[in-house]
Design a protein that fits this description.
The protein is mostly helical. It has one domain. Helices cover about 70% and strands about 0% of the residues. The protein contains twelve helices and no strands. Helix 2 packs antiparallel against helix 3. Keywords: Membrane, Transmembrane, Transmembrane helix. Pfam families: DUF1295 (PF06966).
């Protein structure tokens, strides 16, 4: 497919960067007022939603209306659901230990250190990871049968990921709320439902969501190649960055977790392994 409006897309990149920055700066102000930086996790999904909405407005007259609406809706549903879930989960809690450890290493003004290492970094990641969401809305129409099929496949991948993430989060929340959720040794490890098949159904769901959103931008080969960095970065964040690796380090000493880790797939869902 040819005719991608690179000039208009470049303008969109600048405006979307400003939108992501605005979300993070507002969140930074709220965090200083509340005295906790964990609320930046709530802003993660809101940042993607803001970028998708800004792009939807700016891409009018460039991309196909149906594709633009689909991509914006998929991003907003995912982002708003995630932000709402994190906000409810963190209600009434103090600072996240991750941010306590990170900010304890800072020098100089702790506010400026937090702004640089937490808020500006996450704003940049929102902008980078959302490149397919932005580009997909500029791929010219009208939609051909091939692109309809591609958007259908993208939606199916996104939906599978969204179900994994949503159901996994709901199952974990019910487990944490159940005081009887312990085995005979007193261990408290979630190993039911989707968590029986993968130690991180929510992260695996995120992984699928963003590969699905990347597929929406694959109606143009050059655009697909230019935005491939986005799902790759998200995949690394989920598996090697602040996702799976960091969480498992925190859980390593929990009673029963070593046995759970031995029998349960680390990321991709697989049948539980037999252990002695």
């Amino acid at each position: 497919m040819t005719g991608f409006p690179w000039g208009a897309f470049g303008v969109n990149l600048a405006v979307s960067a400003a939108a992501a920055l605005a979300v993070m700066l507002v969140t930074f102000g709220a965090a200083l007022a509340k005295g906790v930086h964990r609320i930046v996790d709530v802003a993660w999904g809101l940042g993607f939603t803001a970028v998708a909405a800004v792009t939807f407005a700016l891409s009018a007259g460039h991309g196909d209306p149906a594709a633009r609406l689909l991509v914006t809706a998929l991003t907003a549903v995912w982002g708003l659901r995630l932000s709402g879930h994190i906000a409810l989960r963190g209600r009434g809690h103090g600072e996240d230990p991750r941010y306590e450890r990170l900010l304890a290493r800072g020098r100089g003004d702790p506010r400026l250190y937090a702004l640089r290492t937490v808020y500006l970094l996450q704003g940049a990641l929102v902008w980078l990871v959302s490149l397919p969401v932005q580009a997909a809305q500029y791929v010219p129409g009208p939609l051909s049968g091939q692109r309809w099929a591609l958007l259908g496949a993208a939606t199916l991948v996104w939906l599978t990921g969204f179900v994994f993430e949503t159901v996994g989060d709901a199952q974990l929340a019910r487990f944490k709320a159940d005081p009887a959720a312990r085995d005979v040794t007193g261990a408290r490890v979630m190993d039911r439902g989707l968590w029986r098949w993968t130690r991180h159904p929510n992260y695996f769901g995120d992984f699928l969501v963003w590969w699905g959103l990347w597929l929406t931008a694959c109606g143009d080969v050059a655009v697909a190649a230019a935005t491939l960095v986005s799902p790759l970065v998200m995949s690394l964040l989920l598996t090697k960055g602040s996702g799976k690796r960091l969480l498992e380090r925190q859980l390593a000493d929990r009673p029963g977790y070593a046995a759970y880790r031995e029998r349960t797939s680390g990321f991709f869902p697989l049948p539980p392994r037999r252990t002695r």
